[in-house]
Amino acid sequence: MSSENGRNEFSQSKNFSGSLKTLTKPRYRLTRLGEQMARLPIDPKIARILLAAKKHDCMAEILVIASALSIQDPRERPLEARDAAAKAHERFTDKQSDFLAYLNIWDSFQRERDKGLSNKQLVQWCRQYFLSHLRMREWRELHHQLAQTAIEMGLTTKEAAFRQPPSQEQLRPSESQGDQDLAAKLKQKQLDKKQHRAQIRAAKEAGYEQIHRALLTGLIANVGMKSPDGNDYTGARGSRFHLFPASALFKAKPKWVMAAELVETTRLYARDVAVIQPEWIEQEAPHLVRYHYFEPHWEQKRGEVVASERVTLYGLTVLPRRPVSYGKVAPEEAREIFIRGALVAQESNLQTAFFAHNKKLIKEITELEHKSRKQDVLVDDEALFAFYHERLPELVWKDAKGGVWGSEEGGQTQSDKTADQNGQANQRNAGRVAQAAHADSKDASNREREPSSHTRQNVSDDPKPKKQPASQKGRLKPLPLADIRTFEAWLKTAERDNPRLLFLSRDDLMQHAAAHITEEQFPKFWQTADGKFKLSYRFEPHHPLDGVTMTVPLTVLNRLHAPSLEWLVPGMLREKIQLLIKALPKQIRRICVPVPDFITKFLESNPDRQAAIIPQLAHFIARSAGDMRILEQIDQDAWAAQELPEHCYLNLRIIDDGGQELAGGRKLHELQQQLGQAAAVTFRDNTQEFERDNVTTWDIGTLPESIKFARGKQQLTGYLGLQKEKDGRIALRLFDTTEAAEQAHRQGVIELMKLQLKEQVKDLNKGIQGFTQAAMLLKHINADTLRDDLTQAVCDRAFIGEDELPRNEKAFKEQIKRARSRLPAVKEALSRYLQETAAAYAELNGKLGKHPLTHLLRLRLQTLLAAGFATRTPWAQWPRLPIYLKAMTLRLEKYSSNPARDAAREADIQELEQMWQEKTDSLIKQGLPISDDLAAFKWMIEELRVSLFAQELKTPYPVSVKRLLKELNSLN
Q: What percent of the chain shows pLDDT beyond 70?
């Protein structure tokens, strides 16, 4: 059918019925832009570029480039002179764009024409630069035709349509160079050059973006991004191409390019390419790009629900990721994320009464869970979500005055309602338009927005839809409830009718009453003689603060008693005891069945909460079984070494006076080793009223056992004692523990007594009888070190011995009298013991040689007679030192008769020594003191050596491996 017949048929259909119009209307219709493109007698892509040039104000440049793209390339590249042509064309090359090369050719040719050259001279100039004069003329003619058409269409004016070559400004010297010396002139010349180049570059960049944005509108399908793993480019619809070797960008390989055409020869090549920015693609072709949304989440810093947006063009990723407000994309899902993130998870900075109330209430109930170590009190997040979901509107509506309402009717005045009654159909239509604003994204997991030309289509087929009534237009604006600002605006309006709309109650939050979680079971403070310290609870396994944490000032660190910390708080003690019982051997564990009842009986027996749990629990198990021999079956050291979960140990947080945390951990002895000295120094701060320097006589009155004093809001207890300072002087100092005070006071009293007994000490320092000979025999110890060590041992025994330390002037003077009378006897006894020990050592040392036991016995000698042995050896053991050495000598003599027996006995002794060492280390690790009996046990091992290797030397009491094992077990 001809087009004329078609038009007649259409006109006839109009006479029958208006209802048939939709059947005969053309399916597609040219837009205003299409009508303009149809008037241009060139490729539609080039026509689109010309129309974009008007928008970007670069019509003169685009007319030149568009006409160049419409003809054959004016540059000639003869095969026999390819290199020469390439070198000649370098004059016109631009490093960023092959399109600008056309402008450079045009400008160069125009300058030559402006010089008034003849046609022959112009032909010769073209040949010089390998340009076709015929194509140059064709180019100019087509350019003139396009320019005339553009002027007729009103795209540009006659003055702006024809490009004038830019003037080549020469570098102008600075005006101030006249008075400068040569060096300054050179420097100024360099600055002028740099500034001139910057000006040229800035002018070029300003025009570059305008020109290439216009070109992009028509060449949008020819964009490409460089592949990360190769030199090719990924283009639209999955195509892959390479840059043409003749391109100025071939070596540079920029990330994003745009090409005039894609030509397939041996491979797909892009010709006439230019560097572009990917952002331009979205801005110049918004109707072609697609938007994909992923990872929607609540972002506290921005105060809104945010998603990552990816922009693609024909499958090519233009922008891989950028954050966008998700409420405009998917209002329903964004509202849910907002509720879960901002309100349920409380990840927001809301400054509202309901939020502060709900946060405080949830914290209180969460603390109950931390204490009980069960997440069965606070309702789950779904219950909180349901609470807010029920009370928050799906959408909010903003009226013309800025008010935000939870419903469309909420913002209507009476006059608005009357107007609505007069136009209900129009109101429904407006509602559909509002909903269409969010119809571009429905998939929650990976949203994809259709091109905007489809999502923003008109409701009516009429290209010019009718205007809405004045009462409807712009009166109510739907907003998604997905950000803090909108929420606060809605809340301000909603709370006028119900101020407690979003306030949670305890019934809303608690699954049960939690009556067992009382302050008696889970106290807020740890009470000691030095005051009370805050306790905090946390239920988060494997977290450093899991369990109960006590915040302790540094000043009282040394005063904490490790055994008392084992008892935790009443509410957590039962679980710890249950785990301890579970760690016992099965035959002993049976005694404790049923375990809950057994624990109840143990706690009702009022155990000493200042002593360790394990010894008391072991005794209770034995008493419950009616057989105390069970104690021998319980290895308390191994039991104590069993690792329980972290929350079964009290966590300590040590802070300074300013509340800053210094250290933390669950092992008190390690914290005391780390900060004990600093704690003692800090404890003494501001206690000068109790202390004195340079004490030379007992003029300090009576020293009380303890002193109570205030430090800030804390009531502390200190212990006074004399102390020998580093410079040798004696001072009165305040200590934080009785042990530290007693140890320092003993040495301080001895030093003070030395000042009162100067003549005796002076005589003692000359050396005791037989010292010279003993020093020669004990040559592994420095003579001066040995003399000082012996002097200190004599003073300790003669001045104090087993006596109680004096704490007043009368007791001090009486102690001096006793020291004067005891000193000669102690001096004489130590002299005798020293000579015997030195002689025995010399005899043993002479027989060691290359004996198989040499290494083992030298280790024993290092233990017994190392530097400082005189003060380390208890007075009762001095007479036995020579015996221990003689026993070693006899062992050497007997070894050859039966080496196997010697090795077996040594193995038994070493096993005992190892058990004693492990028990000692365990006590130190737990921060417990080593008892006198346990310290004396190592001397029992020495007696066992005498009994096993030199029985003829006798021992002061019966010893055997079996007896010592029993003794060691009894020390538990």
A: 87
C-alpha 732: how far from chain center: 48
Cα diameter, the chain: 148
Structure-block tokens of residue 233:
């480019």
Query: Which structure tokens are listed for 246?
Result: 């003749």
Report which of 563, 572, 649 is spatially closest to residue 607, judged by C-alpha positions: 563
Q: What H or E segment, with its residue span, contains residue 735?
A: strand 730-735
Tokens for 7, please give them: 């038009």
The residues, ordered by sequence, that sit 6+ positions from 164 with a Cβ below 8 Å of its Cβ are 110
Question: With contact defined as beta carbons under 8 Å apart, do 818 and 803 qualify?
Answer: yes
Sign for the CA dihedral angle at 757, 763, 764, 768 comes to negative
Distance of CA 838 to the CA centre of its chain: 63
- Euclidean distance between CA atoms 968 and 972, whole angstroms: 7
Between CA 533 and CA 866 the distance in angstroms is: 45
Position 297 pLDDT exceeds 70: yes
Mean pLDDT of the chain: 84
Q: Would you say the pTM of this structure is higher than 0.90?
A: no
pLDDT band at 470 (very low <50, low <70, confident <90, very high): very low
Which whole-number Å values give the CA distances from 736 to 343, 526, 694, 721, 742, in the listed order?
Answer: 50, 19, 21, 11, 11
Measure Cα distances from 937 to 739, 930, 942, 944 in Å: 22, 11, 9, 11
Integer Cα distance of 150 and 135 in angstroms: 22
pLDDT in tens, 338-355: 999 999 999 999 999 999
Question: What residue type is assigned to position 310 of the chain?
Answer: R
For residues 379 and 801, give the distance between their C-alpha atoms in angstroms, rounded to a whole number. 68
DSSP 8-state secondary structure symbol assigned to residue 469 = P
The lowest-confidence range among 223-237, 710-724, 794-808, 847-861 is 710-724
Is it the case that residue 303 has pLDDT exceeding 90? yes
